[in-house]
């Protein structure tokens, strides 16, 4: 056989090999209409891995039906390596005509499917409370537990409101996140106008599964368009356990990938340089790069290797031999000169690119906005008493932002623990990387937090040490607070056993937080509203001193200004109901949120409690007010509070909390009054044992001129000092 014939035979053999790569199980169809169906999915009897992957192929139905369980049958749009897309027809409807009302429930428990992170529950309508209850984790395995969660959002409409139909409307809609790994969802809607006794005829409201950032909805028919994305996995164990079992699903030349999102199971994927179906024997085949798409230079010989290739330059030439690399160059002095010039040019280009990159990030992360609001200039290292860090310094401090250094994650980003070269322990908040149309809003939040915190120097407010503007996402550097959040100490049963959270300590923390907020409202040059007071934004240092944190959504008021008019922001369960109605945030809105925290301290309960039905859904505030009004406070008190606390002090705090939670903001006390009353209650409880420092603060709080004795910075070119000890920062959540 001639060389040419041999090459032609090898080429045809290669093509035949590609043709026999299995997509479906032998003897089973590979397509249903335009839908390709790879194993472990299958069409017909005995063609799938198990009944969860069965597809009912009806040529008259497009897209085809997929039977996920006896409870759910879905229309399958497409299948990828780790996800499927199904037709979206899941809608909850609330109308004046109750016969039109619907709720939807989705149940994927004990199936190979979980929700991806591509969706949120989107609600459209006016004056509604949309509620979503769910369950995460598919299987109850020895190392997995079922997690309940609940979320809600409130939608309000302007006077010129029009029902949204398209992407990103101005108002009349809200969204609730759907956590990755969710297996069960239940949606229902509650009419706020009905609850508040102001019933009127209005258009139908709808809740449905939509995209994170936009949605398309047909207002007339009440049908959401698009698809729902589900992750799929095989088995119930992770790779390390499944690999030892006889029915392990990954075949030759493939890698096993553990399911993410905290669920059991795994998926299989061909090694780089291989192709085929990893779920079917004999597994994945090597890709012959030299035949399929020769990656080598014209003066190089391509040699295929398992999973890769080699480009060898011909005799008399040197280089990597790659078409998109150096290629093949003539050997000798010319090559040495070329290499020297290339190295120098590469170094120059790298330095120029790095400089341009830093300038780009400086502008992108709000450097120009920061310059407008302060006297800082690009390149300065000091902003008032706040330092501007460089990226290299923070990379070293966090071991290149190693995952082992993560303290917590939240809606605004991730917090890392680090140590500076002088040994100081710090916490670094790294903002999340977002798409372009959201970045402007998050940069404004970042700059707002820098400007607000650089003005504050108070022992009960977390201290901002500095920021970094020359990285892809902006970074904030805080003192490190080691004892976590107040939320964790109230609600984590493990913590309560390790360290009893006494009534005296709860009362001290409440007084410290109120004092800090009174300072923000009254003692700074411009009053500051926090706008997101909650127990997870209150940190505790090594001596369990409270520190108010997370000022990303805070706002300063101009002289003479009494409130802010903004889109509703905050955390469900803590937001002032008046703010819901008017979108006007006042100092009394922070008072309401603190009232919720006081109730948490008294009861040990969370602000929102998941329920099995809409009728049983009651917030903590509702339960607390009902108990107080019925003179049945004992029924809702935390056991430790009821055991340790003096009755008079507990009742006084409960009455103060009720005043803070008054639906009419004008009837609530201001923050200074709350701080003074809590301090008086605390001192009465302590008897003859008086904390000298707190006694000093109480006297300062009672001054008419609001001179609290704490220093603040209003001139960003001036460095101020504080006699307070610096305590470090730790976030469980952001």
From TrEMBL:
Keywords: ATP-binding, Disulfide bond, EGF-like domain, Glycoprotein, Kinase, Membrane, Nucleotide-binding, Phosphoprotein, Repeat, Serine/threonine-protein kinase, Signal, Transferase, Transmembrane, Transmembrane helix. The keyword Transmembrane helix applies. Residues 286-320 form the EGF-like domain. It catalyses: L-seryl-[protein] + ATP = O-phospho-L-seryl-[protein] + ADP + H(+); L-threonyl-[protein] + ATP = O-phospho-L-threonyl-[protein] + ADP + H(+). It comes from the Eukaryota. Serine/threonine-protein kinase that may function as a signaling receptor of extracellular matrix component. Binding to pectin may have significance in the control of cell expansion, morphogenesis and development. GO terms for cellular component: plasma membrane. Residues 1-18 form the signal peptide. PANTHER family: WALL-ASSOCIATED RECEPTOR KINASE-LIKE 10-RELATED (PTHR27005:SF515), WALL-ASSOCIATED RECEPTOR KINASE-LIKE 21 (PTHR27005). It is an enzyme of class 2 (transferase). InterPro entries: EGF, EGF-like_Ca-bd_dom, EGF-type_Asp/Asn_hydroxyl_site, EGF_Ca-bd_CS, Kinase-like_dom_sf, NELL2-like_EGF, Prot_kinase_dom, Ser/Thr_kinase_AS. The lineage of its organism: Eukaryota, Viridiplantae, Streptophyta, Embryophyta, Tracheophyta. One of its GO terms (biological process) is cell surface receptor signaling pathway. Its EC number is 2.7.11.1. It is found in: Membrane. Residues 401-683 form the Protein kinase domain. This is Serine/threonine protein kinase. GO terms for molecular function: ATP binding; calcium ion binding; polysaccharide binding; protein serine kinase activity; protein serine/threonine kinase activity. It is a single-pass type I membrane protein.
